[in-house]
């Protein structure tokens, strides 16, 4: 069994890589999706977030307006730290439970934006960084619906991609087309599947 951290800056294409990893049969977990599910459950994470940021982040039906929350925390580093402290504790607990369900030979991939910034990349056997230059990332993010202001604010909150590359075990250059990316990911899938056969089983 092998655990893999997957990261990259906004617009780098890490979610596309995550999808290609799923096609390889890997168990892929998206940190953002998991955290949003905590909000939907309206359990402890929901209560702590509402307590910390107030009911102004809620929609009329009482659900968390994730865009409004993101706009608030990405504008203030201290608020972002508070949100991460609430959500990441629950996230890591959830991922540990999922890891125990894995079988020998499985590859578990966790997709998250701030693995390097927070030092949590050390939790995984391997760190995969998806790379694209600033201009390419910006173009992709705006094409997906981000405003230029949103992109710049989030980009500033993240470590420069060139710094993340220094921590990577594997780098996926995603400045080309989808066919090139798919070929690179499939090659990496073969490598990771090989290592998974010799890594310790979950306990």
Automatic annotation (TrEMBL):
Q: What is the name listed in the Swiss-Prot or TrEMBL entry for this protein? A: Dephospho-CoA kinase
Respond yes or no to whether keyword Signal is given for this record: no
Its subcellular locations are:
Cytoplasm
Q: What HAMAP family would the database entry show?
A: Dephospho_CoA_kinase (MF_00376)
Q: Which PANTHER family match?
A: BIFUNCTIONAL COENZYME A SYNTHASE-RELATED (PTHR10695:SF46), DEPHOSPHO-COA KINASE-RELATED (PTHR10695)
Question: What NCBIfam families would the database entry show?
Answer: dephospho-CoA kinase
Question: Could you name the domain of life of the organism this protein comes from?
Answer: Bacteria
Predominant subcellular localization, coarse grouping = cytoplasm
Annotated family: Belongs to the CoaE family.
The chemistry this enzyme catalyses reads:
3'-dephospho-CoA + ATP = ADP + CoA + H(+)
Q: Which Pfam families match?
A: CoaE
- InterPro entries tied to this protein: Depp_CoAkinase (IPR001977), P-loop_NTPase (IPR027417)
- GO MF term (any one): ATP binding
Provide the function of this protein: Catalyzes the phosphorylation of the 3'-hydroxyl group of dephosphocoenzyme A to form coenzyme A.
Top enzyme category: transferase
Pathway stated in the Swiss-Prot or TrEMBL entry: Cofactor biosynthesis; coenzyme A biosynthesis; CoA from (R)-pantothenate: step 5/5
Organism the protein comes from = Thermocrinis albus (strain DSM 14484 / JCM 11386 / HI 11/12)
Q: What is its EC number?
A: 2.7.1.24
Gene Ontology, cellular component aspect: cytoplasm
Q: Where are the transmembrane segments?
A: none
What processes does the entry annotate via GO biological process terms?
Answer: coenzyme A biosynthetic process
Q: Which residues bind ATP?
A: 11-16
Sorted keywords for this record are: ATP-binding, Coenzyme A biosynthesis, Cytoplasm, Kinase, Nucleotide-binding, Transferase
Which CDD domains does the record cross-reference, listed alphabetically? DPCK
């Amino acid at each position: 069994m092998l655990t893999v951290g997957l990261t990259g800056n906004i617009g780098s294409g890490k979610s596309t890589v995550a999808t290609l990893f799923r096609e390889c049969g890997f168990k892929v977990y998206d940190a953002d999706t998991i955290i949003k599910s905590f909000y939907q459950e309206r359990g402890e994470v929901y209560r702590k977030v509402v307590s910390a940021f107030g009911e102004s982040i809620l929609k009329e039906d009482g659900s968390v307006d994730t865009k409004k929350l993101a706009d608030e925390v990405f504008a203030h580093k201290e608020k972002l730290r508070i949100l991460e402290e609430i959500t990441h504790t629950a996230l890591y607990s959830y991922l540990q439970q999922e890891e125990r369900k894995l079988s020998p030979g499985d590859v578990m991939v966790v997709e998250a934006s701030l693995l390097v910034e927070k030092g949590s990349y050390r939790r995984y056997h391997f760190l995969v960084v998806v790379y694209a230059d600033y201009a390419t990332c910006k173009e992709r993010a705006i094409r997906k619906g981000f405003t230029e202001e949103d992109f710049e604010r989030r980009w500033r909150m993240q470590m420069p991609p060139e710094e993340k590359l220094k921590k990577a075990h594997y780098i996926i250059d995603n400045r080309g087309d989808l066919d090139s990316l798919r070929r690179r990911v499939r090659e990496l899938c073969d490598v990771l599947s090989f290592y998974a056969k010799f890594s310790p089983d979950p306990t």
